Each structure stands twice: as C-alpha cells, then as structure tokens.
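Lab notebook, page 48
Experiment: co-folding of the full assembly
Goal: obtain a model of how the components sit together before planning crosslinking
Operator: M.T.
Materials (sequences as entered):
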Amino acid sequence: MTTTLGGRWRAALLALLVASCGGGEPWHAKNVQGIIPDLAFDMTSDEGREVHAADVRGEVVLLFFGYTHCPDVCPTTLARLAGAIRAMGDKGRRVRILFVTVDPARDPPALLHGYVKAFSPQATGLRGSTAQLDALSRRYRVAYGRDAADQHGDYAVSHSSAVFVFDAEGRARLLIQPELGAADIAADLARLVGGA
Amino acid sequence: MSGWPAILLPWAFSPLLVALLLGAAIAYLRGLRRAGPGEAVSLVRRSGFWSGLALVYVVMHTGVDYLSQHMFYIHRLQHLVLHHLAAFLLALSRPQAVIARGLPGRLHARLLTPAWRHPLTQAAYRALQNGLVAPLLFVGLIFFWLEPEVHFYAMLSGPLYQIMNWSMLLDGLLFWFLMLDPRSRSEGALIGLGPRIGLLLAATVPQIMLGAHIALAPDDLFGVYAVCGRAWAISPLEDQQLGGLVTWIPAAMMHVVGALIVIGYWMRADARAAKLPTRRQAG
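Observation: model returned without errors.
Model output:
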C-alpha cells in the first residue's frame, strides 16, 4: 500500500533532510547526518585505558554494540567490517572499529581484546560500567536486553544490529545495516576517509 | 516511590510535559473547588479527565516510552493511547470550563482569552476543525508516521521522535474535542451530530486497511527496530503482526464507541430541540 496522504509530507521531509545533509552523491549505507548525535562516549578500552571520543578524532569510527558470546550477528558483522577495511588498503588504517560489549560480565578486557583483534587490527573493544553503557545506549537510542539463561547458564543478549559511522571530526554520517555488503561498505568508508 | 513498579519511573525527564500536565491538574482541581451552584462535574467526567491525564503521563514519560522506542507493537499501543484513548477521555470530560475557572484570573483574562479570540487563532482553528480537514489530518498523521522511511528516521532521531508523539497527542485532542462536542450544530458545534457519526465510521476504513496491511505483511517493514535493538527477544514479524493488530482493531473500536456516544448526544439534542423534558440529565 502506498501512502498517498503522507506522500507529499514525506517528500517534503526527505527534501529537508537531504538539504540539511548537503545532498551530493547517495551513499550505499543510510545517511544519518543530522539525525544521530555526534560521537561522544566515556568508556574503558580492552587494554584498560579510559577512552573518550577525542582519542579517536582523525579516524573514521565504526561504532558497534555486541558481545563475544554472540552467536551470529556480531561475528558476521565484524567480519564484514574487517573485510571492508582490508579492501581499502592503506586508507583502512584511518578507520577504527569500536566494539562496545553489552555483556561486560562475560567479556573481561583480555578476552575482548583477543576477540576483536582476531577480526581486525583496527578494532578496539570498549567496556563500561552499567551507567556508562546506559548513557551510551541512550545517546544512540539503542536497546540491549539479557534473555533468560539456559540450563548451562548461557544466555543471549538482544542488541542493536546496526553500525554507526562517524567521520574524522566525530560527526554521525552513516548507518550500516546487516544487508550491506563489504564492497559497498569499503566504498563508503573510502569516501569518508578521502573526503575528510 | 520505592513501592512503584520500575516501569512507572521517569525514563527521560521532559520539563515541558511535566509542567503542562501539572499545570492542567492544578487548574482543574482549583476549578472544581470554585464550581458554583449548577456547575458540578459528574464523576464520569472527572474520571475521564484524570485517567486521560494519567495515561498521557504513563506513555510519554515512563519506562513505557523506552519500550515504545524499541518494540513496534508497544509503539503502536503508545500511539493508540495518545491519539485514540487519552485524547478521547480528555475530550469526553469536557474540562475547558473547569480549567478556565481554575486558571489564575489575570493569565486567563489578559493572555489566554485574547489569544484564543484572536482572529488568527480562530481562523486557524476553523481551518483545521471541519469535516474535511480534521478526519484527513487524523488518518493522514497515522499513515505519515508509519511510512517506513519516515518511521525509520523518527525512531532514530530524538527531536523527530518528540515531534511525532506530540503531533499524535495534539491531533488526537483536536479530533476528539471536535467529535465529542455534545452540542448540535444549531447549539454552536462546528460539525452537526449526524455528519460526525458518518465521519467517525468512515475514518475507520483507512485505519483498518493500514492495520491489516501491516499485520499481514510477509516481511519486516520497519527495520529500525532491528537497527536499534528490540527490548526483548521477539521475532520481527511477530512484533509487526501485533503492532498491525493494535493499529487495526482497538483503534477502529474507539471510533465505534465515539459514534455511539455521538448518537446518544444526538438523541438528547433532538429532545432539547423539541423542548421535551429529557428523562436523564445530560452529562
């Protein structure tokens, strides 16, 4: 069903969005400039250091929520992002994956470090207290919830599937959804790295 | 506070919402206390006002608001309350006169009354509140915010999300205050009682179609919930089907209840017009 009533409004709204985004060539990922707040966080890295958004200024940042016990979404997403970064060659060194664990209880720093580095040298794991994680998930309007444990004490954590992309100045630019392939991701990231 | 269910605690504090609800509640209480002889407000109307106000608070200011951002069907329930239920109850309670009595005299006389009587306000009100624009706006807003692309951005952006919810509440109030006016056209209502029954029932048709379209869709129309993460594990299609049913059935039911109430008003207005003694006191 097409929405004839909303059609004109939708066009007006999208025109406004595109205008505020500066227009230009469309991206493979979803353009979220002006929709999502700039990069800001207060977390601890997988090497135990405090990290803030200022520490990754100058790099294109891929912010992603997950956990190491995650059965499907996290490893496939990390593999796709890592593949895209590899495909970018030298430009890939100006891209940083920030993998925020939503299950810090089962993701101690060493485990988290080994997990993300297995995918890409450009990946950093981030941990935070409940308050820090809540602040970050509230800022980007993402949810995470722990499901009931099975008889082995294993549990799944439902979480956001999207990757938020920030440019070198920390401005939110793109949203990578699970169906986007590595080649398209690489093309978008190269534009962000090259243009910035 | 400690005995409260956690879900009723504020999620994101909104000074605007708290000020408006608190202001309305205080003005209403003062207005009730200042009621003169013959101005008593029935228990039904008072209950309608308080439950309408409480529902707005719960869906816009508590953990329910958080769940509404992360579960499609709870978002649909939130909009059902804002657009169809709380607005309906508030309109049914006709609190205008009570609130006006309870407002500080100077605020009422110097600011609100002149602003309301201003030709621009009146022109805008009449442009919106008529048999063509009001139902189109009411149905159109539902369609607009459920357009998948628009919905995606509205759920991702904090400011757009607020605009969406406030637009649903304000439009719900406009629509139901227009529809549930107990007066007939000759007594001053903007639309006659008979035409309103037709409009209320006609407005269910597109809502039923949209609800059915969503409930029966074979694939996920609203990907933003996967992007932002659902509040608990539920399959996207199950979430969407429940949300479609909420858009479809209870929304249409509220229109039928509204039409029945207007039929009741119509019979009483006829009795008044014929100058026959009514058997029951109105209101």
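Interpretation: Residues 1-5 of chain A have pLDDT under 50 and may be disordered.
Next step: discuss with group before ordering constructs.
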